[in-house]
């Protein structure tokens, strides 16, 4: 992820050790993946490293193959309004 510049990233190998949290914000059906030399479906991930990194602070990663654990190593947050007024 540190060397990402743009396009859809479809790495062959990822570390099994997670050391950074990101936010999955959307998806797309076809974006060019340079390593695969074709369009691939992708997740859009917002990184915390700021707008100067990646594509204005966002990262596109292949969708549908559990690349880097994006489909299985997930945490969620649910917000509940406790205001009764």
TrEMBL record:
The lineage of its organism: Eukaryota, Viridiplantae, Streptophyta, Embryophyta, Tracheophyta. Signal peptide: none annotated. The keyword Disulfide bond applies. It comes from Gossypium lobatum. It comes from the Eukaryota. The keyword Lyase does not apply. One of its GO terms (biological process) is proteolysis. One of its GO terms (molecular function) is cysteine-type peptidase activity. Keywords: Disulfide bond, Hydrolase, Protease, Thiol protease. Residues 2-76 form the Peptidase C1A papain C-terminal domain. Belongs to the peptidase C1 family. This is Peptidase C1A papain C-terminal domain-containing protein.
């Amino acid at each position: 992820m540190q060397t990402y510049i743009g396009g859809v990233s479809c790495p062959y190998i990822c570390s099994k050790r997670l050391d950074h949290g990101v936010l999955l914000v959307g998806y797309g059906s076809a974006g060019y993946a340079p390593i695969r030399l074709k369009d691939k479906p992708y997740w859009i991930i917002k990184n915390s490293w700021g707008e100067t990194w990646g594509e204005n602070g966002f990262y596109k990663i292949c969708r549908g193959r559990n690349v880097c654990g994006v489909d299985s190593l997930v945490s969620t947050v649910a917000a509940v309004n406790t205001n009764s007024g």
